[in-house]
Amino acid sequence: MNNQGPGGVLMGMRNLLLAVILLAVPRDGSVTVSADASQPHLAADKDGAFYCVYLHGGNVELRTSTDDGKSWSDAVIAIDAKGKARGGMQRGPRVGVDDKKNVYVTVPHCFDEAEQGKKYPTSELWIAISEDGGKSFGKPLQVNEAAKKAPEALHWMAVSANGEAHVAWLDMRDQQKGQDLYYAKVAGGKVGKNVKIGGAVCECCAPGIAVDGKGNPLVIWREGGTKTSRQIFMTRSSDGGKSWKAPAQVNAGETKVPN
């Protein structure tokens, strides 16, 4: 199964994944994946194994299950944040897995020690990749090319079967106020060029991203601005993320939801 992150406006898809794990455990109780953890996210591979990433002790950890969620592996640190990783309000890690069981983990975090000294340090967006099924991870790669321009740290990721990670996030490199929507593809251990695919998006809503069986991504988001009815838009690529269709409004009626 490809990881299809829902983001702020596709919460139902995330809840479906969470429901899978809840339904897989015995009826008489739940299973503790990790105590004192926060901001969990779940993915499943093509054989039905689960991969759960979360924040714990200020780091990004991963545990896996190959028995329908009945038991979980020991924790592996996917991204070592030196105990300083923080989350909340959709600002946690994401996980995806390809058909070779390579595992991809993203997280917003500030590694800059000088920046960490500020009351509200600005995070960058990072991705770490495991080529051994989640037993170990390589050095994190920075996804956003423009440093200190993704302060809200709201993002989502989806992974294709062939091992391409598609990432969408809020970015303000072209804005004095407000946020735009940027995208990058991570393939072959390298982060591709950052591309703006949407403008003036909601500053407090994570985007959603999914990828189809041919490896083509689709991104959905909530618009920003001062309108009394912010709408939901989507765009898609038919060439693996190289180019994008013009954004189209998803909802037929007014949302009547302002900022």
Describe this structure in words.
The model is unreliable at 1-26 (pLDDT under 50). Helices cover 7% and strands 36% of the residues. The protein has one domain (3-204). The chain is globular and about 50 Å long. The longest helix has 14 residues, at 11-24. It has 259 residues and is mainly beta.
Strand % is 35-45%
Alpha carbon gap, first and last residue = 35 Å
- Judged by helices, strands and strand pairing, the structural class is mainly beta
Question: Number of helical segments?
Answer: 2
Please trace the helix and strand order, writing H or E for each element: EHEEEEEEHEEEEEEEEEEE
Concise summary:
This protein is mainly beta and 259 residues long. The protein has helices at 11-24, 113-116, and strands spanning 3-4, 38-44, 50-56, 59-65, 76-79, 94-97, 103-109, 124-130, 141-142, 155-159, 165-171, 179-187, 190-191, 195-201, 208-211, 217-222, 232-236, 248-249.
